[in-house]
Amino acid sequence: MKDSACVEFLQWCLPKLRLRWKGFRKVRGQVCKRINRRMKELELVDYKNYQEHLSIHKEEWAVLDSMCRITISRFYRDRSVFDAISAEILPALGREVERGGGAEIRCWSAGCGSGEEPYTLQIVWNLRIAHEMHRDTVFRVVATDPDSRLLDRAQKGKYGASAVKDLPAELLRNAFTEVGSVYAIRDAFAENIAFMKQDIREESPEGCFHLVLCRNLVFTYFEEALQVDILENMYEKIVPGGYFIVGAHEMLPRETTNLVPLSGIPCIYRKSRS
Ligand SMILES: C[S@@+](CC[C@H](N)C(=O)[O-])C[C@H]1O[C@@H](n2cnc3c(N)ncnc32)[C@H](O)[C@@H]1O
Question: With a 6 A CB cut-off, is 73 part of the ligand 1 pocket?
Fold first, then answer.
């Protein structure tokens, strides 16, 4: 079916799902493909028919919503961000938690895909930071995503070469076993990750976090009013002095005076203490 017809359809349906066309412009191909497949399944011949179907079968909106999830990810995505997490953020959090007599560091990876982001955090902590700690600080990651298929894949922990291509070689060597063309994450890196099926528009994990990552999701694909609501909620989940990271090409919807950008890397923020 024609790209222009899909564009017109997306421009009609995305605002109704509180999503924004601007985020989808470049990646619409995969969404259009899924919608075309769905229309075939339903034996609908064009988008007009699908619109009618949506107006009669309200439950179809949830199906359409799930077809609009962009799921691209990879390990150590945006190297400069993970370099800063590794060189600055995790060591600082480790020292702070130790000084305060705490026993654990808590991170939340929101929109965790197939586990690439939460596993990267565990890999960096375990292979680069843990040995510098004076005590056995537990490094926990809560990883949330509404897509059960992705979460299943995350729990299996098996990836192709393209998913690990940005990982520095020493991390790749020590964190995975390689069998043929499959890279399997070693069990140790999965120990302190809790994968949970959650939609960020509806719920968030319990408790507060020293580090929250919400990358390439809310601030790209969601409409601005929804971004503001979710940001307020996430902000409350960050401990004072904790860090908040968005995608390398994302911006917060408005200035939040208590979230201060880290110098040099505009997508990393620190929550002030007062
Ligand atoms: C483009 S991927 C980004 C993955 C990872 N954060 C990264 O930056 O590499 C977006 C992820 O957000 C998830 N997602 C989509 N809608 C969501 C929602 N409403 N709540 C939570 N996660 C969502 C998708 O399933 C997908 O795994």
Answer: yes
